[in-house]
Amino acid sequence: MANTYQQRRNEIEHYFDRTAAQAWSRLTSDAPVSGIRATVRAGRDRMRQTLLGFLPSDLRGCRLLDAGCGTGALAVEAARRGADVVAIDLSPTLVKLAQERLPASLGPGRITFRSGDMLDPSLGRFDHIVAMDSVIHYNLPDMVNILARFSAMSDSGVHFTYAPRTPALAMMHAVGKIFPRGDRSPAIVPHTTPALFKAVAAHEKLKDWGLARNARVSSGFYISHAQELKRA
């Protein structure tokens, strides 16, 4: 995993911290955007609510990792439910933006922002880990290894998204290739649900874990599948 994970991680960091930082700032705000980006914004909003729906409504006393926090919207909602949130992202630029957007009051919870690797063991242990669209750029072996690393850090569950292999998503990838290389995001790697289930079941470090609740969100150019990983 080390070489391919690190290479892809570096590409993602460069893209979100430099190439796309301004576009991402606009997408995650309430500023007007194009029709295509509006569907992505709406899809991400629905997915965020879907993942939050997998969590308890009362998170007081819980420690939660928002892995790949972006501009912090999910972290804020979890903190409002009472969670002690560690929100981490590869992009220092996005983390700074998340801090600038932090509401004056978070209710009973709190957020600690960090920039760096979401698999850093120094982050400690968590009751829940949420990775919204944070592992969608990795091949299946690397993605499942990431889930295994998350499982070693979580006492309850891992809630993540992956890109489902669908004809619509394949078409979007083909359209994306017409853009200049410098404007392209790191490629999303789609996976079939049977392949994911098989890979998780075969992983030695996930033998005590199983895939549970799931839900798909399709909104124009945004297609993502929410999946829960729980102790068996």
**Can you count the helices?**
8
Q: Which class in CATH terms?
A: Alpha Beta
State the secondary-structure class. alpha/beta
Total beta strand runs: 7
Distance between the termini: 25 Å
The mean pLDDT is 92
The radius of gyration computed from the alpha-carbon positions, rounded to a whole number of angstroms, is: 17 Å
Share in β-strands? 15-25%
Give the CA-based shape: globular
Order of helices and strands: HHHEHEHEEHEHHEE
Tell me the CATH superfamily: Vaccinia Virus protein VP39
Q: Which architecture does the CATH hierarchy give at level 2?
A: 3-Layer(aba) Sandwich
Would you give the CATH topology? Rossmann fold
Topology:
Layout: H1 2-19, H2 21-27, H3 35-53, E1 63-67, H4 73-80, E2 84-89, H5 92-100, E3 110-115, E4 126-131, H6 140-153, E5 154-162, H7 167-176, H8 193-202, E6 209-219, E7 222-231
Parallel strand pairs: 1-2, 1-4, 2-3, 4-5
Antiparallel strand pairs: 5-7, 6-7
Structure report:
By secondary structure, this protein is an alpha/beta fold. It has a single domain, classed as Vaccinia Virus protein VP39 (Rossmann fold). The protein contains eight helices and seven strands, in the order αααβαβαββαβααββ. The protein has helices at 2-19, 21-27, 35-53, 73-80, 92-100, 140-153, 167-176, 193-202, and strands at residues 63-67, 84-89, 110-115, 126-131, 154-162, 209-219, 222-231. Strands 3-2-1-4-5-7-6 form a seven-stranded mixed β-sheet, with helices on both faces. β1, α4 (73-80) and β2 (84-89) form a beta-alpha-beta unit.
